[in-house]
Design goal:
Elements: H1 2-7, H2 11-15, H3 18-37, E1 48-52, E2 58-59, E3 65-70, E4 81-85, E5 90-91, E6 97-99, E7 102-109, E8 116-125, E9 131-140, H4 150-157, H5 163-192, H6 201-229, H7 240-247, H8 250-270, H9 277-298, H10 307-338, H11 341-374, H12 377-382, H13 384-421, E10 424-425, E11 433-434, H14 447-480, H15 485-488, E12 493-499, E13 502-509, E14 514-523, E15 534-541, E16 546-551, E17 554-555, E18 562-570, E19 574-584, E20 588-598
Parallel strand pairs: 2-9
Antiparallel strand pairs: 1-3, 3-7, 4-5, 4-8, 6-7, 8-9, 10-11, 12-13, 13-14, 14-18, 15-16, 15-19, 17-18, 19-20
Helix pairs in contact: 3-9, 3-10, 5-6, 5-9, 5-10, 5-14, 6-7, 6-8, 8-9, 9-10, 10-11, 10-14, 11-13, 13-14
Length: 599
């Protein structure tokens, strides 16, 4: 049946091969409309904006609780706030919970504490599922002896969880992207270009395996996200309580939906027969739509500005990528190699039309997302997100160039095949044709040789495209794990510099060129809070031979060791050398020099 039906496809079907693609997109938009209606604006990475007690503050009596306030809604584990004394011993405190009246605030009750210096370590999950963490000190009493907490703070700040778990999560995400693309892209190829493709046993088996891999990978991502968010080691992947913690997040819920959806795709593909083609495609298509939407909402899709635009652009971007990647894999592995020339050319030519449409959609949606997530040229060149994005765009451009090479080879292949099979009119009877090849030039290779060599060249060209789009998927995975550039340039820079005179905590908020806000808190080496008369700050940018420039500072409220400037000016992006001098009494100065990078 497969060969008969496929060979009956007409040129009209080829010309209208984009029609099913448009219907797929419309179905996705209907599904996405619900997500758009409830899409809230949110920052990708939560930022701590206030604490009680304040960082570096000395309070007269023991606080009853420690609270943290963020710039966006967050989720936390029961032990998200931990309290240590200066010797590094963790103290027993109450369970960390969200403030009932403020979803951006978390609180943990603490027992009565003695005079001394304490370190608070915290960890929370951002709206896009990425964990954030930090640490700060506060003191009880005004003169603390032997309270050097600098090394403990540095250790807790650097405690970003298990590197192995983070790497596993990134690898699983890439496998999910790849498996989803092969499975759903193959399904789209069947719906648009290769109606009898599911009758090809090896192709169908690959689609089923890819769908199962995507489903298993989605379940594993829930376990990895739970361990990663809690900063637990690899062994915690089997901790069922962490699974429960991950499932209450948007990431976990999207992964669970994707697991079920990909099982549907696998079942529909495996149950296919010539009698239930429509049912298989409807069930598989429904699972495909749910899968694409779940991927779009699991990371940056609902965060940042323009969330409604973002979710639509993400869905279109992911769908176009799956159509392109899955189709290329199928062409390389099965279509060009296994099918007869007539059948292979028909599939390749129809895919060429739909792929052109998909790449155009990929480009437009990618530009929209870039404008939303990057903001400006400075953020593009000075942030990790922007740099990865530029690499991704470069790879896509090379892949598109290879696609044009492949398109030319398809045309050459079709011309060679046409020459090989062109009938020669014989003057016998009325309109009788002899299907013998037309004679060729003596110097030119035979048409069958040209056709065979062109087929091999096309497969090599498509193979290079496949490798390039695999690299694009790696870049996409890295982007999903990276804070968007537009938020990175708006994040505060928090830096601590230690010296024999004590340590200074510097905050530049936001850490970008131009007018910004600068806070400086100076603490003695023993953890005590000095009574500072004045702080002077100067900055110098060596690469432009600029400075030193003075930054006027004033006392922050009535805090003795905390000074601020609401109009600090860093004229250019770059790494500035900042010099801080704290005057204590008439003769003692505490001097600190540190690099400060602004974008």
């Amino acid at each position: 049946m497969g060969e008969t039906v496929e060979m009956s496809l007409t040129q009209a079907e080829s010309r209208h091969s984009v029609g099913p693609l448009i219907r797929i997109i419309v179905a996705m938009m209907v599904c996405v409309a619900g997500a758009v209606a409830f899409a809230p604006g949110a920052s990708a990475h939560a930022v701590l904006i206030d604490t009680s007690p304040s960082a570096g503050q000395s309070v007269d009596s023991s606080p009853t609780s420690v609270s943290l306030t963020f710039n966006d809604s967050i989720t936390v584990e029961p032990n998200a706030i931990r309290l240590f004394d200066v010797k590094g011993r963790q103290l027993d405190i109450g369970t960390t919970q969200l403030d009932g009246s403020n979803p951006k605030k978390v609180v943990a009750p603490v027992p009565r504490l003695n005079n001394g210096t304490y370190v608070v370590a915290w960890r929370a999950n951002s709206p896009d599922s990425h964990p954030v963490n930090g640490a700060f000190t506060f003191a009880i009493g005004t003169s603390i002896v032997g309270a050097d907490a600098r090394s403990l703070v540095a250790k807790l700040v650097d405690d970003n969880g298990s590197t192995a778990v983070g790497s596993l999560l990134a690898a699983v995400r890439w496998v999910i992207y790849l498996a989803v693309s092969v499975s759903l892209g193959g399904l789209a190829l069947v719906m648009i270009c290769w109606r009898e493709g599911l009758g090809h046993s090896r192709f169908r088996r690959a689609m089923i395996i890819s769908a199962v891999v995507a489903a298993v990978g989605s379940l594993l991502s829930i376990a990895a996200q739970g361990a990663y968010a809690a900063a637990r080691p690899m062994g915690a992947l089997f901790d069922s309580s962490l699974w429960g913690d991950a499932l209450v997040t948007r990431f976990g819920q999207a992964a669970l939906v994707r697991t079920v959806a990909m099982v549907l795709v696998a079942v529909a593909t495996s149950a296919w027969s010539p009698k239930n083609v429509r049912a298989s495609l409807v069930i598989g298509g429904s699972g495909a739509v749910a899968t694409i939407v779940s991927l779009a909402v699991s990371n940056h899709g609902l965060t940042g500005r323009w969330p409604a635009v973002a979710i639509v652009a993400d869905v279109l971007h992911l769908a176009a990528m799956a159509i392109w990647v899955g189709g290329l894999v199928a062409l390389f592995r099965w279509v060009v190699r296994d099918l007869t020339t007539d059948r292979a050319l028909g599939v390749v030519q129809r895919f060429s039309t739909s792929a052109l449409f998909a790449v155009g959609l990929l480009t437009v949606s990618g530009v929209v997302q870039s404008i939303r997530q990057v903001g400006g040229p400075t953020a593009l060149t000075t942030t990790t997100y922007g740099q990865i994005l530029m690499v991704k765009v470069g790879i896509v451009m090379v892949a598109v160039g290879m696609a044009w090479v492949s398109r030319g080879l398809v045309t050459h292949w079709a011309r060679a095949h046409s020459t090989l099979t062109a009938p020669v009119l014989q003057p016998v009877g009325s309109a009788v044709f002899d299907a013998t090849p037309a004679p060729s030039s003596a110097d030119a290779p035979p048409p069958e040789v040209v056709e065979s060599e062109t087929r091999r060249a096309l497969r090599r060209s498509i193979g290079v495209e496949v490798l390039l789009v695999f690299a694009v998927l790696i870049a996409s995975t890295l982007l999903s794990n990276t804070i968007p550039a537009i938020e990175a340039v708006a994040l505060p820079l928090k830096q601590t510099v230690a010296g024999a005179a004590g340590f200074a905590e510097i905050t530049v908020e936001p850490a970008r060129a131009g007018l910004t806000e600068l806070h400086v808190t100076v603490t003695n080496a023993d953890g005590s809070v000095p009574d500072i008369g004045a702080i002077t700050v100067s900055i110098r940018l060596a690469e432009r031979e600029l400075g030193p420039l003075d930054v006027p500072m004033e006392r922050f409220e009535s805090v003795s060791n905390h000074f601020q400037s609401l109009n600090a000016n860093f004229p250019f992006p770059g790494t500035w050398e900042m010099k801080v001098v704290a005057r204590i009494g008439q003769s003692e100065d505490k001097e600190f020099v540190l690099p400060v990078t602004v974008r």
